[in-house]
Amino acid sequence: MRKKALVAAMTALVCSVAGCGAETNRRTVPDAAVRDLTLREEIEVERAEERLVKESMEEKGFPYWELPVPGADERRTGRYVTDDVEWARKYGYGRVFEERGEKIRRTHPTSAYQNKLGPKRRAAFTEALDGDYHDRMSVELPGGAGSVDAPRGGCVNEARSKLYGDSETWFVTRKTVEGVLPLYGQDLTEDVRFTKTVAKWAQCMKEAGRPFDDPGRLRRNRTAVTENMPSAQAHEFDRELAVLDATCAKETSLAEITRTLEGSYREKALKRYEKERDNYRKMRMHALRKAEDVLP
Fold first, then answer.
1. Comparing C-alpha atoms, which of 275, 286, 287 is closest to residue 29?
2. Averaged over 195-217, what is the pLDDT?
3. Which residue among 29, 173, 212, 232 is least crowded, i.e. fewest CB within 10 A of its CB?
């Protein structure tokens, strides 16, 4: 059970691999130009998607306010381990972002507008935005991890088609490339280089008065302990614990070793999906070029 929980906790550590394209996009993105997107570029593409969704919804007769896209600091929440002590000192485990996300879900103008609609109009809004829930696209995940599906159509998929060339191809490709963790997660957590470093981290935490076997167990414990705390108290608890956690991760090189191993194991797993990864990279580069036209 502990190994399964550890693998699950590491899901957030998986690096984003860069983009690709459908067959029609290969002519517009030369092989020499294909690369991983930077974090800034990923944010730009997501902002462009929100802009295109807004335009599509307005064409269908619905107002839509663009959702804020997470910034660089927010995207670092949920990692299995971090060695950035300054980030930990400022954000703890990212509770401020969790609370901000919850506030957005409750008070964002689009949500407020949708909640005021009658049943029929609300259903029409949802279908215009997300597509027909009775008409779905599906993909089998790598490693026998099951399948995922999503509705076709709607403004979200229209926006993705404009950016990536084809929304369904993008859905299948992205879920495949970003879903390879089950192929190597257990091997990674059983790698002696990883287990030895986790043990060093655990000893460091024990000497600091916070005995935990591994960062995954620490994070689960932190969630349980802070669940009913007042916000300010939970923030302070998080920051104190996160600084110790990150300090030990830095001193033992746990975060660095985990990143290196994860990258190596992931590369091996993706060799089984070279075509999908090539398409993934090209589609993301295509989306970046489109985003530059969409945003002012």
1. 286
2. 97
3. 232
Do 269 and 11 meet the contact criterion of CB atoms below 8 Å apart? no
- Asked if 77 contacts 94 with a C-beta cutoff of 8 angstroms, the reply is yes
| Rounded CA separation 31/57 (Å) | 35
Burial (CB < 10 A; 0-12, 13-18, 19+), residue 212, is buried
The owner of tokens 């975060």 is 255
Q: What is the mean pLDDT of the chain?
A: 90
**Of 106, 100, 113, whose CA–CA distance to 68 is shortest?**
100
C-beta of residue 287 within 8 angstroms of C-beta of residue 180: no
Q: First and final CA of the chain: distance in angstroms?
A: 50
Task: Report the C-alpha gap between 167 and 96 in whole angstroms.
Answer: 33
Q: For the whole model, what pTM was predicted?
A: 0.84
Q: Which residues pair with 137 in a beta bridge?
A: 150
Residue 68: C-alpha distances to residues 46, 105, 110, 290 (Å): 9, 11, 11, 19
DSSP 272: G
Task: Write down the pLDDT at residue 25.
Answer: 40
